[in-house]
Amino acid sequence: MHDDTNDNILPVLEKMRTLRMQKGITQNQVAEGLNVSPAYISNVETAKTRLNVRVLRFYAALLNVSVDYLLNTESDMEAIDCEIISALKGFSTEQKKQLLLFLQSLSEHFPAEM
Known about the structure:
This protein is an all-alpha fold. The chain folds into 2 domains: about 1-75, 434 Repressor (Amino-terminal Domain) (Orthogonal Bundle); about 80-114. About 70% of the residues lie in helices and about 0% in strands. The protein contains 7 helices and no strands. The chain is elongated, with a radius of gyration of 17 Å.
């Protein structure tokens, strides 16, 4: 049985799996965090089990990306953007605010080329 819905979700699942592996996170770790079996996670990532909102939100939080980023397979976000977001995970709110001020100042002095 072929399901066209699966074709639409495959790029999302591939992005989730790729990001998970890039961060060195195992399926066992994901399963532990969701209190499910590793086989379930494997089945989700290979589209044998439907992806649900709970799992999608967990992956987004775990990978430090937005749900929108995971769902948007035609994103203009580059790999470097993901690395920056990942690096911010260890920053405090105050550090993030200071970094934002610095970046805003930097962009005023050195506008991006279009």
